[in-house]
């Protein structure tokens, strides 16, 4: 029996085409320049700058969920741009947004250190900055909204170590970390090391993936498979994009069975790989809560209110949400029950048999 559908209001699983230019989006997602439903009459512009589009979350979840929530709160226009992992491009996008007169800047930085200059320009123009998901390394940040990112790494590392010990396949693992310019990547890595290092399982090799590029992760993993062969009994991959690259490398090398591979983001392709047995686990982060919180805080800051933080992180008023492990055993209780995906979206014809075996139907 299928569970009833519990979908988000504006959730579209299809990836919205991205452009390098700023687009103005309203409650209906179009490119017109105003939205209705506001009380003040005047349309207030809010900037949303996201870092890349190879990871599906940004265009499929973060952007539409943020826009939908914000335009439900008042007469807002979202000035949106995706940097495609290019820090210089993001700098220009931020300058354009400030020139367009945004009242608040919601910034998920490609490069947390380089983005400090964006935060400074915004502050010089009295535009509050929300550091969204990734930390901007600046004291000019008004609010930080993310997950407990060190805990993401702890969850990944713990799941992998437990699984390798359970399977008695502890000869060695490789670590495919995230981008060196992303502060989150350092947190994931720190959390994972805190579990893997004392486990006694050797780390054969480790790589910080430039730009979180799945292609670069695949290329590096291919080299490690050649070098270590069967000694490589597990793969720590920091997110589902790099996990996909690693799994493609293992398949291309014809290695069987595929060693346990970790991930993060609960991307649809990753959930399908988990159902099929190609990927071991991922970490589900409730992006709806994150994006909607960002919209609420942007609304408060735009109204001149001071948001009350849930916590502080490095002295910045913050909200840090809780990540959750997903394996084949709890897909229903996590991403399906939470309305992130329907069974139909996961269990396409190609995965029908695997879904039935996993009890998803
Ligand atoms: C995010 C992850 C994402 C990665 C690559 C990180 O900062 O927290 O969810 O997979 O960036 O974009």
UniProtKB/TrEMBL annotation:
One of its GO terms (cellular component) is outer membrane-bounded periplasmic space. Gene3D superfamilies: 3.40.50.2300. Keywords: Signal. One of its GO terms (molecular function) is carbohydrate binding. SUPFAM superfamilies: Periplasmic binding protein-like I. It is found in: Cell envelope. Residues 1-24 form the signal peptide. The keyword Signal applies. Its main location: other. It holds the Pfam family Peripla_BP_4. Transmembrane segments: none annotated. Residues 46-305 form the Periplasmic binding protein domain. This is ABC transporter substrate-binding protein.
